[in-house]
Specification:
The chain is of the alpha+beta class. Helices cover 24% and strands 22% of the residues. The two termini are 28 Å apart.
C-alpha cells in the first residue's frame, strides 16, 4: 500500500500539472467498490469545477475544487474551496496525469477530462482504493485522523504513546495516532532510531521517542526526495517508479547482512504485519 512518501509524491506531481485547470467531463467505471460517493453524484459535482490545489492528508490525496463555473481558478467569494475530491489509493491505486490518446490501462475506474486537454485517471487493479466527493457547503472538509509525522512536535509526539501497552511498531501503524506511516517507514525509522519493533510504546523513554520522531521525519523526507518506494505497483503521477527502495536498511532484507553491523536482518510478524529489524543495532 502506498504510504506517506508515495502519496505525497503523487499529490505534488498532480498539483504541479493540473492546478488551475478545469474539469470538463467526468467518467466513472461500473465497479462499485472504489466509490464512497455514487459515481453519478461524483460526476455531477465534479464537472465544471476548477482545481484550486492538490495536497496530501494522511494517506489520502485531496483535490480542492472551486465553483462549477467556466472561469479557471474560481473559488468561493473569498477564494476558498467549495468542494473536494478525495482519493485513497488503497493497495494498488494510481492517480495519473496523461493525454486523452494515452493507452487506457486495465482497471481504470475514473477519467477526468480537463480543459487543458489532459486527463486525470484513477487506476486500481485490486479495487481497494476509494473515491469520494464532498460539497463543502453541506459537509466538513476532509482531514486525517492522526497527527502528521512531518509536522508533529516533540511534546505532542511523546503524548501519543504515553501509557500505551501495544508494541511501538503497532503504534506507529495506528492511523488514529499518526497519519500516513505504514509498514516500510515504520521498520526503517525504528532501525534508524535503534529501537526494537516489539518494545512496548508506553515504556520508551523521552529520549528514545525523540530519536524516533526525528528518525521518522528524516526517513519520510528522504523518501519523498527519491520519489517514494516502488516495491509493488507504485508509480508517481507520470507513471514513474520511485527509488527509495534502493536505500532500505531492513525492510524486505530478511537474512541479508545489516548495512551497519553485518548481523543478519530478522523478520517477525507483529500486529499481523511482516516486521524487519536488526537484533544487534536495535535494542
Amino acid at each position: 500500500m502506498p504510504e506517506l512518501p508515495e502519496v505525497e509524491t503523487i499529490a505534488r506531481g498532480v498539483h504541479e500539472r493540473v492546478r488551475g485547470d478545469r474539469i470538463v467531463q467526468a467518467w466513472f467505471g461500473s465497479h462499485r467498490q472504489p466509490f464512497k460517493t455514487p459515481p453519478a453524484r461524483q460526476a455531477k459535482g465534479l464537472e465544471g469545477r476548477a482545481i484550486l490545489a492538490v495536497h496530501r492528508a494522511g494517506k489520502h490525496i485531496v483535490c480542492e475544487l472551486g465553483l462549477a463555473v467556466s472561469g479557471l481558478g474560481a473559488g468561493g467569494p473569498d477564494g476558498a474551496p467549495q468542494a473536494q475530491w478525495i482519493v485513497h489509493l488503497g493497495m494498488t491505486g494510481r492517480l495519473l496525469v496523461t493525454t486523452p490518446d494515452g493507452p487506457i490501462a486495465p482497471h481504470t475506474h475514473a477519467r477526468l477530462s480537463l480543459a487543458s486537454g489532459r486527463e486525470l485517471r484513477f487506476v486500481d487493479p485490486r479495487r481497494f482504493g476509494r473515491l469520494e466527493f464532498r460539497d463543502l457547503r453541506r459537509s466538513p472538509g476532509f482531514s486525517a485522523a492522526g497527527a502528521d509525522p512531518l509536522a508533529v512536535m516533540a511534546q505532542a509526539f511523546a503524548e501519543l504513546f504515553r501509557g500505551r501497552r501495544l508494541a511501538i511498531k503497532a503504534a506507529l501503524l495506528n492511523q488514529k495516532l499518526l497519519s500516513g506511516v505504514g509498514n516500510i517507514y515504520a521498520d526503517e525509522s525504528l532501525f534508524r532510531a535503534g529501537i526494537r519493533p516489539h518494545r512496548r510504546a508506553g515504556r520508551l523513554t523521552r529520549a528514545e521517542l525523540e530519536r524516533l520522531r526525528l528518525a521518522l521525519r528524516e526517513v519520510l523526507e528522504h523518501a519523498i526526495r527519491l520519489g517514494g518506494s516502488s516495491v509493488s505497483d507504485y508509480v508517481d503521477a507520470d507513471g514513474v517508479r520511485g527509488f527509495f527502495q534502493l536505500e532500505h536498511r531492513v525492510y524486505l532484507r530478511t537474512g541479508l547482512p545489516c548495512r551497519h553491523c553485518q548481523t543478519p536482518i530478522r523478520r517477525i510478524v507483529l500486529a499481523g504485519r511482516g516486521t524487519h529489524y536488526c537484533p544487534q543495532c536495535q535494542r
